[in-house]
């Protein structure tokens, strides 16, 4: 990705660039909605919330939530503003596996409190199990790469800056915190007979077929 972006500077003409893995399913309307959130909230990096297979709990969809401002999003499907991508792409070659490079982004961007987010109002389906594929053939080496990133960038010390202003969400990754969360009115104005979650047309069709 870093090589491609360097060789194709026209990418910076876009306001936002989404970099999903090849096992992420989202419908076109939701992709458009993701970009709209980026614009409306002036986000630097964000990702949709996840259902299906997951690796880190903080990324899972939260019902009743609109958006969570955090210090961390997963490398699985981040969306960057063009400016933040230009800054963060220097991390893309830190190691071979990619483990922990997303922890560098918050540091490179100066620990913003309302510019990195998980968008609960947009849902992505992770269709394949985690910890599979060539990256995980030697998990011990992969973990060592992650540890090397932590100490090279001093992330063990940088986390203190996030804890002061945010609520820690767990120890699965480098001190992931939520700075602020916006909630939405659930089922407002929707008849009980029309309530359905998640709002995915293909899922409605599948369920309809089962009932039939």
Walk me through the structure.
It is a single chain. With 212 residues, the chain is α+β, with helices and mostly antiparallel strands. Helices cover 33% and strands 21% of the residues. It contains seven helices and eight strands, in the order H-E-E-H-E-E-E-H-H-E-H-H-E-E-H. It is globular, with a radius of gyration of 18 Å.
Structural descriptors:
alpha+beta, 7 helices, 212 residues
Oligomer state of the chains in this structure: single chain
Major β-sheet profile:
8 strands, mixed
What is the molecular shape? globular
Strand content: 15-25%
If you average the pLDDT, what whole number results? 89
What structural class do you assign from the helix and strand content? alpha+beta
Give a quick summary of the entry.
The chain is α+β, with helices and mostly antiparallel strands. It is built from 7 helices and 8 strands; from the N terminus they run αββαβββααβααββα.
Produce the secondary structure layout:
Elements: H1 2-7, E1 16-18, E2 24-25, H2 28-40, E3 45-52, E4 65-70, E5 79-81, H3 82-88, H4 102-108, E6 116-126, H5 139-152, H6 155-165, E7 167-170, E8 176-183, H7 201-211
Parallel strand pairs: 3-6
Antiparallel strand pairs: 1-5, 2-6, 3-5, 4-6, 4-8, 7-8
């Amino acid at each position: 990705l870093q090589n491609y972006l360097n060789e194709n500077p026209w990418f910076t003409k876009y306001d936002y660039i989404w970099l999903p893995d090849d096992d992420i399913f989202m419908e076109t309307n939701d992709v458009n909605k993701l970009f709209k959130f980026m614009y409306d909230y002036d986000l630097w990096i964000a990702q949709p919330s996840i259902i299906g297979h997951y690796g880190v709990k903080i990324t899972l969809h939260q019902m009743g939530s609109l958006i969570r401002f955090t210090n961390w999003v997963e490398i699985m499907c981040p969306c960057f503003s063009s400016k933040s991508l230009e800054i963060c792409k220097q991390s893309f070659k830190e190691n071979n596996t990619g483990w922990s490079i997303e922890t560098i982004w918050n540091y490179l961007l100066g620990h913003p409190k309302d510019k990195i987010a998980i968008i609960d109002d947009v849902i992505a389906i992770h269709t394949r199990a985690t910890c599979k594929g060539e990256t995980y053939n030697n998990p011990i080496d992969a973990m060592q790469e992650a540890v090397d990133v932590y100490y090279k960038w001093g992330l063990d010390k940088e986390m203190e800056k996030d804890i002061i202003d945010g609520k820690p969400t767990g120890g699965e990754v480098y001190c992931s915190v939520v700075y602020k969360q916006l909630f939405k009115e659930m089922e407002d104005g929707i008849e009980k007979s029309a309530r359905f979650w998640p709002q995915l047309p293909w899922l409605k069709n599948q369920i309809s077929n089962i009932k039939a």
